[in-house]
């Protein structure tokens, strides 16, 4: 098992990149209607839903390249906690019933990046392997 430890920074970097790519798509949906609009229309500018799209798109890009990963991940983790309690929990406390599974997973993956850093393949110097 110890031989696998040497790949941990690379797997952390891969987790960061894949997470960011999927997260960026959520922001692109809200801001640009791509790949499909999130509802019948795009959110109005300066609404909470619009700000969520900005955080998801811009924050996702920053996490993707590994720039200021810990700070950005802290903000995005908080955003996902807020999203869960504001948008999902009122429907039901159970994630399987309220559609909040992704919000919870994103919240804790981003929280992990706050403590673990960006891993390999990142602009951040302090978190490279």
Automatic annotation (TrEMBL):
The chain crosses the membrane at residues 43-64, 71-87, 103-123. The keyword Transmembrane applies. It is found in: Cell membrane. Its main location: membrane. Keywords: Cell membrane, Membrane, Transmembrane, Transmembrane helix. The keyword Membrane applies. Pfam families: DoxX (PF07681). One of its GO terms (cellular component) is plasma membrane. It is a multi-pass membrane protein. Signal peptide: none annotated. Belongs to the DoxX family. This is DoxX family protein. It comes from Bosea spartocytisi.
